[in-house]
Amino acid sequence: xxxxxxxxxxxxxxxxxxxxxxxxxxxxxxxxxxxxxxxxxxxxxxxxxxxxxxxxxxxxxxxxxxxxxxxxxxxxxxxxxxxxxxxxxxxxxxxxxxxxxxxxxxxxxxxxxxxxxxxxxx
Length: 122
Ligand SMILES: [Zn+2]
Hints:
By secondary structure, this protein is α+β, with helices and mostly antiparallel strands. Helix content is about 40%, strand content about 20%. The chain has one domain (about 1-120): Zincin-like (2-Layer Sandwich). Zinc ion (ZN) binds next to loops.
């Protein structure tokens, strides 16, 4: 496995956060990473610095959004944006180190946010 900072995705994620007013997401404490050579079938994953690590490290929560290059980078622009929205939606309102799960992060919710993002585009 190889990892690289994904500043292009990070910029997009910031734009999404602003346009969709996901103001609970502290963009200074998220990072986007590209991974290469993953055997997983996932397109992307959301990782968090959990509560115990936050206490031990004396710092607040941090989220890393991992994008598996082999799958993510060949998707259409629309699917890329939807994937970024999906991962951002896993971050809960508390920004506390936990996750929202797939009962909330559904295709329907993602599509709703995507539509809002597109309407905001021009
Ligand atoms: Zn998910």
